[in-house]
Amino acid sequence: MFEWIVEPFGLGLLGTFALIALIVLRMPISFAMILVGGIGVTILNGPAIFLAQLKTLAYGQFSIYDLSVVPMFLLMGALATKIGMGRDLFQAAQAWLGWLRGGAAMSAVAACATFGAVCGSSLATATTMGKVALPELERLKYSGSLATGTIAAGGVLGILIPPSVVLVIYAIIVEANIVTMFMAALVPGVIAVLFFMLAIAIVVRIWPHAAPQATKMDRDARRGATRAVLPVLLIFAAVIGGIYLGLYNPTPAAAIGVFLVAAYGLIRNQLRWKDAKSALFDTARTSGMIYLILLGAEMLKIFMSRAGVPQAAASWAIESGLPPFTILIALLIALIILGCLMDSLSMILLVIPFFWPVLVEVNGGLYQGADGAGFGMSTEDLKIWFGILALIVVELGLITPPVGMNVFVISGLSKNTSMAETYKGVMPFFTVELLRVALLLALPGLVLFVPHLLQG
Q: Model's pTM, two decimal places?
């Protein structure tokens, strides 16, 4: 009855169920992947193969040059948080958008997007902007749901707008060019900011009590707030602009960013030794967690590949007779559901190694169009397009129950708004995010335009 268990594919399925069970039991996902992958390879190939694999696997993973960009961007974000960049960005945005009804909430979105471009982390963006913008929104008598929902949703912009740590990890998994992925994220990131502001405008139009009457800042105050934020914009231009123009690769760009942020903090006398030390320790802890998850993901991928699970999934997709776009949408829906259960980085590392081979097979399999591709594009373009779509739906997991990490963070900062109200507040942003996914599905050129333009 249980003969299928001794077959490689059956063992792979059993390993999948075991992994899910361990995650449900709250075992750290890195340890769960290492345990399942290690036991699986041992059963399939023997302990000698597993031990030989351990000798070189960690070094092979951690010595990837592109991976060195992760701690650099994390350190840049940690330093930016310590020296108060988020406050300057919010004040400047409010100086220009405050005349609109709901302008302070729109300012929070704009500040989240800009800070995310320096920070690269959604949770750090949500935490920083929550401390900066939430008290101001509460002082202005914004409704609790709109105030907390805006910042929780605005925080997710950090996962897509370059430089994004999760985007770097995705590029490494599918062997995409990191610079190209950063280019592809530009237009979808701008669309997200515009859609979020549109959502706020609609909410305050339907429910005027959610936001106070607009107030306009005088010209001198606006000029002062703008001057204060110019160095931050110049740092962003130096880091991302240099990457886009081909002046340097992401790793040296991140190092330049760390230097500029630290110099900015020292010049303004806002970076003390204890802050720098705290930023270094935060970076070390987060980097260690990411690297351990990467090791576990690689061990699990080796086990599942030898068990034939990705190959079986790809074969099923080809033989199912479903159109390529139906399969793609099903994978995106699965990512949204999984995003309700685990954090974004773990989900990318766990799921993408299995989803990507399916799309590659579908793209070059039974549904070839006139140009020889199921989606009407090359494999290189597909990995860029799918990566942006995947990261957008992963964003949704940060604001959807029951995990919704950004909602937990903002609820912890707001003493006057319940978590249920915060979830209610993020629903308009969740809706426009779904609209953005639909737009990018219908018009892949919005994702591919900048890479094709700048790279010929």
A: 0.84
State the Cα–Cα distance between residues 48 and 251, nearest whole angstrom: 37
Going by the DSSP 8-state scheme, the letter that residue 418 receives in this structure is -
- Rounded to whole angstroms, what are the CA distances from 288 to 71, 179, 282? 9, 24, 10
Mean pLDDT score, 71-91: 83
> How many other β-carbons are positioned within 10 Å of the β-carbon of residue 420?
12
- 3-state SS track over 358-410: HHHHHHCCCCCCCCCCCCCCCHHHHHHHHHHHHHHHHHHHCCCCCCCHHHHHH
Measured distance CA(236)–CA(89) in Å, rounded = 12
Whether the pLDDT of residue 449 is over 70: the answer is yes
The two tokens of residue 398 are: 């940060």
Q: DSSP readout, 161-220?
A: SSS-HHHHHHHHHHT--HHHHHHHHHHHHHHHHHHHHHHHHHHHHH-GGGS----PPPHH
CB 414 within 8 A of CB 147: yes
Tokens of 219: 């010209």
CB of 108 closer than 8 Å to CB of 129: yes
pLDDT of residue 247: 86
- Measured CA to CA, the distance from residue 386 to residue 182 in angstroms comes to 14
Count the neighbouring beta carbons within 10 Å of the beta carbon of residue 19.
22
In this predicted model, which residue has the larger pLDDT, 85 or 181? 181
